[in-house]
Amino acid sequence: MLLADKQATLGPITRSPGYWTTVWRRFRRDPVAMFALLVILAIIVVAILAPYIAPQDPYKGMSLRRLKPPGTPGFILGTDELGRDMLSRLIYGARLSLFMGVTPVIFALVIGSVIGIVAGYVGGWLNTVLMRTIDVFFAFPSVLLAIALSGALGAGITNGLVSLTVVFVPPIARVAESVTTSVRTRDFVEAARASGASALTIIRVQVLGNVLGPIFVYAMSLIAVSMILASGLSFLGLGVKPPEPEWGLMLNTLRTAIYTQPLLCALPGLMIFVTSISFNLLTDGLRSAMDIKA
Amino acid sequence: MTIKERPILEIKNLSVTFTAGRKPVRAVDGVDLSVARGEVVALLGESGSGKSVTLRTILRLHNERRTKMEGSLLVRGSDVLKMKTRELGDLRGRTVSMIFQEPMLAMDPVYSVGQQIIEVIRKHEPVSYEEARKRALHLFERVRIPSPERRLDAYPHEMSGGMRQRAMIALALACKPEILLADEPTTALDATVQVQILLLLRELQHELGLSVIFVTHDIGVAVEVADRIAVMYAGRIVEIGPVRSVIRTPRHPYTRGLLSTRGHGGRLSGKRLPAIPGSPPDLANLPPGCAFAPRCALADDRCRAQAPSPTTVDEGHVVRCLRTDATTQSLAAADVSA
Q: Do A13 and B158 touch (CB under 8 A)?
């Protein structure tokens, strides 16, 4: 009776919005981040729908129409050094470039999180062994490590993915470890233990629930780096092999024409720049939107 | 008189030593304590006296690798210190549960309060999500959280301090425990909210027939909730007895010191608040005799040489002091002057 009265004065019962609803509401208010999100979504849609959107066959060249400048009738963005349509190649290139940017990060996210969470939760000598091993990888500059691994494994998409994954595991593991260590000593973990939760339950519920957000945001910021590294590998001839359209590789093959058609040569680079900066801005927006308690 | 029931919790000669540092620290040293069904015992003492450590040992929450626990700790007749991981998981939260000092820190920030209660219920009992939610709602009504339906979906940071502590109590009572451990549950709250929470705890304890061990450094709180008070100093229980007896006729010089430092409403302002001289001893480096001797006005050579053993001074009132003769005398004198 009394309770009902109280509810009446408080007005209708509205559910308090969940965490992610709040994050999304805050994220939507950030115009820069929203714009970045739209750019990325547009690129993803274009990549998926490439066969329907591309005006020409990206593999079909013709020596007669080599290196036409942007604005040529029939070839809006011109043609490359083998006379293939630039626009179509850029559209198809989005597929491989995105794939090379996102996949290694996903693999690294899984492997690195497991290593970091185990090291952080168990602690002791296991932490020392795992994290010092990770530190060994940290000693190499990431570009050098990726190049060295790809060089040793040989060129190709799979080897490129493997080497990029290896490059991204250490930073993710380190972030996961430090967040886990800080979560592990918090009171609510002890409270969970006091209410009878087993170590596995605590890792699954308390640790993952608190750790996944920060790691996820961090991994998103790595996508931009991954794309640039993948393009770099292709540029050096260690990643995607011709004639596949990939932005980094296109940059490489077009470099010979830099004096005759500078604008044309800059196009794949521009795409890499736009995509990676969009991922960066998106991550920044997401990070501040998730920082609700600050 | 009814036949004396076996106490639900029996702690015998419990010692807890932390071995992480360079020198082992004996935080709890030979504690004996038994708690009957439906009884409230307050563990009173200053920081570092071992009260919280004793409480945590009951659930074995200490890091096993860096803690040595000796003695026995029987909950309903089975020794917690010898339990296997699975038995321990069943004990925690089900037979014995705990309320923490800071509910903001003791609740997981990324899950709603309701989710956390449901999680605990479903961990211990094979019930459906809907059933568990219904029970969580009922618990919220029970601890008198206004508009419980809505509050169930709230996150810890969206609640006020008092409300959070109520939710924490609901969480602790989720699986109908028999023993409730309260680690300074009102310390982090406003004075007005403190009283509400104490009354609620007392009421729930009465209704559910809970045994409660209540850790506090506030004598007023202890008097408010407890049937018996155990005063701890340097890891030992120096005085234990019924509230009335301990408060009216404290026999240990330390308890008397604590009682006199209490800022009574009747105390004249402008007068200096009496304090116990010195500071608590380093637990890694205890004096050979009575641990309180260096700060005690009544201490003599005997006190500095040998540790006092428990002496019964009254019905259920036990003191660890060699100078009970002196404290009894001065008590009589104090009565006259008052």
A: no
